[in-house]
Amino acid sequence: MSDWIETGQEAPDFTLPTDNGKKVTLSKLRGKPVVLYFYPRDNTPGCTVEACAFRDQKAELARRGAQLLGVSTDSVESHEKFRDQYQLNFPLLADIEHQVAEKYGAWREKTRFGKTAMGIQRSTFLIDAQGIVQKVWKSVTVENHDQQVLGALDAVPNA
């Protein structure tokens, strides 16, 4: 289990496959802010609410010049189904080996129904146009999280 990436640190670079079969490299998105959010599983209640809330904020995110990326350990095929079922309008990245989640500190020990296992802790990283982390949400509560992210984007330089 790794430590969290914190505000003021450079966002670790990565390349991951997306739901449309392409690859996204974080460093190639420099020049605009990035909202990178980690979520436990496709098609689960909380993850669906969060993804749909972000989907519905597409215009507001675009107005702020931000790129939204969702990351889980699900496969590209799972992401395709999730995207299509809920008309998601942003890339879902397949971190199957949880290497990126580990780099950011989102891969954590979790206890659920009395069982302890490793998994993604719902978390979001707001990265500025220069690749520096400006805000970290470590234990996201889904309700109103999209609004929190939009508010924080308003405070980011060059957003």
Key attributes of the depicted protein:
159 residues; alpha/beta; Glutaredoxin; 5-stranded mixed β-sheet; two-stranded antiparallel ribbon
Q: Please, what is the CATH homologous superfamily? A: Glutaredoxin
CATH topology: Glutaredoxin
Main beta-sheet strand count, sense and barrel state: 5 strands, mixed
Based on helices, strands and strand pairing, what is the structural class?
alpha/beta
The side-by-side strand order for the widest beta sheet comes to: 5-4-3-8-9
Strand % is 25-35%
How does the overall form come out from the CA principal axes? Answer: globular
> Which second-level CATH architecture applies?
3-Layer(aba) Sandwich
Integer tally of domains = 1
Number of helical stretches of at least 4 residues: 5
Separation of the first and last Cα atoms: 32 Å
State the low-pLDDT regions, or none. Answer: none
- In which range does the helix fraction lie? 25-40%
Count of β-strands: 9
The radius of gyration is: 14 Å
CATH top-level class: Alpha Beta
Mean pLDDT across every amino acid position: 94
> What letter string, H or E per element, gives the SSE order?
EEEHHEHEHEEEEH
List the SSEs and their pairings.
Blueprint: E1 15-17, E2 23-25, E3 34-38, H1 45-56, H2 58-63, E4 67-72, H3 76-86, E5 92-94, H4 99-104, E6 107-112, E7 115-120, E8 123-127, E9 133-137, H5 145-154
Parallel strand pairs: 3-4, 4-5
Antiparallel strand pairs: 1-2, 3-8, 6-7, 8-9
